[in-house]
UniProtKB/TrEMBL annotation:
Residue ranges of every copy of the Transcobalamin-like C-terminal domain listed in the record: 215-292
UniProt-annotated stretches for the region Disordered: 27-162
Signal sequence extent: none
Compositional bias per record (Polar residues), positions renumbered to this chain: 61-85
Classification via Pfam families: DUF4430
Organism annotation: Paenibacillus silvestris
Biased composition (Basic and acidic residues): 107-117, 136-148
Residue spans of biased composition, Low complexity class: 120-133
Name of the protein: DUF4430 domain-containing protein
Domain of life: Bacteria
Length: 311
C-alpha cells in the first residue's frame, strides 16, 4: 500500500487534532471537580449576605419574617447568623422595657421605705416635740381650752391630745412610783375594811425605772406597769377632759379618806393641770403617783389646790 502525500497530511492532521483535544480536554476534569466546591462556597456568601440583610431589615421593620427565613435553611450554616440577628430586636426591647420599669420602681420603693421609716419617727418627734410647742387655744369667754383646761404655766409642757399621738417603736426610760403616804397620817378617816390595803411604809410601787415608747403618755405607763405587777387599778374615760381619770389603785379609791381625797400625779416635781392621758412623756421623766387627802395641799400641789382636777 503506497503512502501518498495526501494520506500523510491527513494522518498528521488527525494526530494534531488528537493531541490538541487531549491538551484541551485533559485539565477540564480536574477543574470541573473543583468548580462545584468553589461555586458552593461562593453561593453561600451571597446567601449569608442576603440573610444578614434580611435579618437587619427584620430587626428594623417587624421581626416576624425571621421565622420563615430560619425554617427554610435550618441545615444551612447561615442559620447560625440568623438567630443572633433576629434575637437582637427582642433583647433590645426587653432590656429597654425593664430598665425604665426598674428605674421608676427603685426610686418609688426607696421613697416608700424612706417615707415608712421617716414618717413614724417624724410624726413621733412632732407629737413629742412640735405638738407641745403649739400654742394652747384658750377661749376668751371661759378662759380655758375646749377640754376645760386652764392656761398652762409658762415653761411647762402643753397637753397633747391622745387622738393626735402616733406611738413609735423607739424605747425610752422613765422613773415611776406609786405611794399613799398621806393615808398613814389619816388612818382614822379610812374605812376599817381597807386598813390592811395600806402598806406600812405607804409605798405601793417603789420608784422603778420603766420602759415606755416615744409618744406614750403618763397614763399608758401606769396602766402597763400596774398590769405587769398585778396591782389593781381602775379608771374611767372622761371625754369632757379628753383623758382617763384614775379612780383607784391597789383598791384605794377617791373619797376613801374624806371628800378631798384621791389620786394625783406629778412629773419632774410639777402637778399638771390636765389629765394623765394628755401628758406626753420624754426620756428621763420622773413620774410620781400620790394619794392626797386634802386636794393636793398635803402633797405639795399649791397651784391646783384652789379647784383644779386631781388627775
Amino acid at each position: 500500500m503506497k503512502i501518498t502525500k495526501t494520506k500523510l497530511v491527513s494522518a498528521i492532521v488527525i494526530v494534531v487534532a488528537l493531541v490538541t483535544s487531549y491538551l484541551f480536554m485533559g485539565p477540564q476534569p480536574s477543574n470541573s471537580g473543583k468548580l462545584p466546591a468553589r461555586t458552593a462556597e461562593a453561593s453561600l456568601q451571597p446567601e449569608k449576605q442576603q440573610e444578614s440583610q434580611v435579618a437587619v431589615e427584620v430587626g428594623n421593620q417587624a421581626g416576624q419574617q425571621p421565622d420563615s427565613s430560619q425554617a427554610e435553611p435550618s441545615a444551612d450554616p447561615s442559620t447560625k447568623d440568623q438567630p443572633v440577628s433576629t434575637m437582637k430586636p427582642p433583647d433590645a426591647a426587653s432590656t429597654q422595657t425593664p430598665s425604665p420599669a426598674k428605674a421608676e420602681a427603685v426610686p418609688a420603693k426607696e421613697s416608700d421605705k424612706d417615707s415608712i421609716k421617716e414618717t413614724p419617727s417624724a410624726s413621733a418627734s412632732q407629737s413629742a416635740a412640735s405638738q407641745p410647742a403649739v400654742k394652747q387655744e384658750i377661749d376668751p369667754k371661759t378662759g380655758k381650752d375646749k377640754y376645760l383646761t386652764e392656761p398652762v404655766p409658762s415653761g411647762k409642757p402643753l397637753p397633747v391630745e391622745p387622738q393626735n399621738i402616733k406611738i413609735s417603736d423607739k424605747a425610752m426610760t422613765a422613773t415611776m412610783s406609786v405611794t399613799c403616804l398621806t393615808i398613814l397620817d389619816n388612818m382614822k378617816l379610812l374605812d376599817k375594811e381597807k386598813v390592811e390595803l395600806v402598806p406600812k411604809d405607804g409605798v405601793i410601787f417603789p420608784a422603778t425605772k420603766v420602759t415606755f415608747y416615744e409618744g406614750e403618755s403618763v397614763f399608758n405607763v401606769l396602766q402597763r406597769e400596774m398590769k405587769k405587777h398585778k396591782i389593781h387599778m381602775e379608771f374611767v374615760n372622761t371625754p369632757i377632759y379628753n383623758s382617763a381619770y384614775i379612780e383607784g389603785i391597789n383598791n384605794l379609791y377617791e373619797f376613801d379618806v374624806g371628800e378631798l381625797s384621791g389620786w394625783m400625779f406629778k412629773v419632774n416635781g410639777w402637778f399638771p393641770n390636765y389629765g394623765s392621758s394628755r401628758y406626753q412623756l420624754k426620756e428621763g421623766d420622773v413620774i410620781e403617783w400620790v394619794y392626797t387627802c386634802d386636794l393636793g395641799r398635803d402633797v405639795g400641789d399649791t397651784y391646783n389646790a384652789l379647784g383644779a382636777t386631781k388627775q
